[in-house]
């Protein structure tokens, strides 16, 4: 028996969300803004959410797009890229130190300047890992609303600010990601192989609950095929663009059920904590840029305090090295997940079940 279709109202809301995201992405791209597809879709959907529109997307669509983005990221990998992995350990070690300092500095700011309790300040300071922060806040008694708003505004500022900030300093990126291989009927067999292998790897990592499993699994499968030189094909540009817009809509939809009044009440904490986190990140970015020959744009995206999936989409949109960025954000995820979980359980008190 075929699964039942979603109610008509849900389908209309999904379609409206995608149309809003498309309009935002195309609008930003038309004006030549860096990473226009992703930043425009995020801003448009977030704005619609704050205006009261019921923005939402089905989980299966977001998962499919994560696999597509992973495939496109893996297509960037070359044998030369893989050989560069040996030069990263020191950079990753600095990223781990940066993550701890960032959490401590942001937590201190929220406590001293805004008078937050220790647990809420810790969870709001976590760079990425919003789902973990909300789960721990629910279990241990943190301020759910404050944590969600500060974390969500940080992602919005990163998605909009980083591409334009890099462009200001001459790190110009195309509004639309550029394909790095053939994508037509002459390589249809290669594209099918690419889709099958990448999807299998994505599902395998999802099954073992690897963080960002669908995106990273697809990237690994694609990277193996491209890095080994077995294939040179990539997915058509329109598939990649559609996936980028959709994942931008997913990020923007985090503002759903959030009113403008509610948002304004926490804007000071959100902007201030973002400034503190980025100040810490900037110090470490400059250290890495001084001692290592990595492109500055790669370092900026790798060290910025964003969620893995969002930063990987930015890496694709900005035409960066996905292996370097991905390795650093995986390292950050491990450090943040462990340190925040330990810290939260020391600071919080288990809440009675309802």
Task: Please provide a brief summary of the model.
By secondary structure, this protein is mostly helical.
Protein model, in words:
The protein has 354 residues and is mainly α. The chain has one domain: Na+/H+ antiporter like fold (Up-down Bundle). It is 72% helix and 0% strand. The protein has 16 helices and no strands. Helix 3 packs parallel to helix 10 and helix 5 runs antiparallel to helix 13. The longest helix is centred in the first third of the chain and has 26 residues. The radius of gyration is 20 Å and the shape is globular. It starts with 7 loop residues before the first helix and ends in a 7-residue tail after the last helix. The relative contact order is 0.20.
What's the helix and strand layout?
Elements: H1 8-30, H2 36-50, H3 59-74, H4 79-83, H5 89-114, H6 118-125, H7 130-140, H8 144-168, H9 188-207, H10 213-227, H11 237-252, H12 260-265, H13 267-291, H14 296-303, H15 308-317, H16 322-347
Helix pairs in contact: 1-2, 1-11, 2-8, 2-11, 3-10, 3-11, 3-15, 5-6, 5-13, 5-16, 6-7, 6-8, 6-16, 7-8, 7-16, 8-13, 9-10, 13-14, 14-16, 15-16
List keywords for this structure.
Na+/H+ antiporter like fold; 354 residues
Low-confidence stretches: none
What is the residue-mean pLDDT, rounded to a whole number? 83
The CATH architecture name reads Up-down Bundle
CATH class designation? Mainly Alpha
SSE order in H/E notation?
Answer: HHHHHHHHHHHHHHHH
Distance between the termini: 37 Å
Radius of gyration: 20 Å
Question: In total, how many beta strands?
Answer: 0
The major sheet is characterized as: none
How many domains, as an integer? Answer: 1
Structural class: mainly alpha
| Overall outline | globular
- Please give the share of residues in helix: over 70%
CATH fold-level topology: Na+/H+ antiporter like fold
């Amino acid at each position: 028996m075929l699964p039942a279709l979603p109610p008509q109202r849900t389908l209309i809301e999904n379609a409206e969300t995608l149309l809003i995201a498309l309009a935002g992405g195309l609008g930003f791209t038309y004006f030549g803004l860096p990473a226009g597809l992703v930043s425009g879709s995020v801003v448009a959907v977030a704005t619609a959410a704050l205006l009261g529109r019921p923005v939402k997307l089905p989980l299966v669509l977001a998962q499919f797009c994560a696999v597509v983005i992973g495939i496109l990221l893996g297509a960037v990998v070359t044998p030369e890229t893989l050989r560069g992995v040996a030069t990263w350990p020191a950079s990753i070690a600095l990223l781990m130190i940066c993550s701890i300092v960032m959490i401590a500095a942001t937590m201190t700011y929220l406590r001293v300047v805004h008078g937050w309790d220790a647990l809420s300040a810790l969870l709001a300071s976590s760079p990425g890992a919003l789902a973990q922060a909300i789960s721990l806040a629910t279990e241990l008694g943190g301020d759910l609303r404050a944590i969600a708003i500060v974390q969500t505004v940080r992602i919005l500022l990163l998605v909009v600010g980083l591409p334009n900030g890099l462009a200001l300093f001459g790190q110009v990126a195309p509004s639309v990601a550029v394909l790095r291989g053939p994508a037509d009927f002459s390589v249809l067999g290669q594209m099918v192989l690419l889709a099958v292998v990448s999807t299998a790897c994505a599902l395998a990592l999802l099954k073992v609950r690897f963080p960002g499993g669908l995106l990273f699994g697809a990237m690994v499968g694609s990277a193996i095929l491209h890095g080994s030189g077995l294939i040179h094909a990539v997915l058509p540009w329109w598939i990649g663009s559609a996936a980028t817009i959709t994942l931008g809509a997913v990020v923007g939809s985090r503002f759903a059920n959030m009113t403008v009044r509610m948002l304004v009440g926490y804007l000071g904490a959100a902007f201030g904590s973002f400034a503190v986190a980025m100040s810490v990140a900037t110090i470490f970015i400059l250290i890495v840029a001084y001692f290592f020959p990595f492109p500055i744009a790669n370092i900026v995206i790798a060290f910025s305090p964003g969620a893995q999936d969002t930063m990987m989409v930015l890496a694709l949109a900005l035409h960066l090295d996905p292996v370097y960025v991905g390795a650093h954000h995986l390292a950050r995820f491990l450090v943040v997940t462990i340190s925040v979980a330990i810290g939260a359980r020391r600071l919080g008190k288990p809440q009675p079940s309802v």
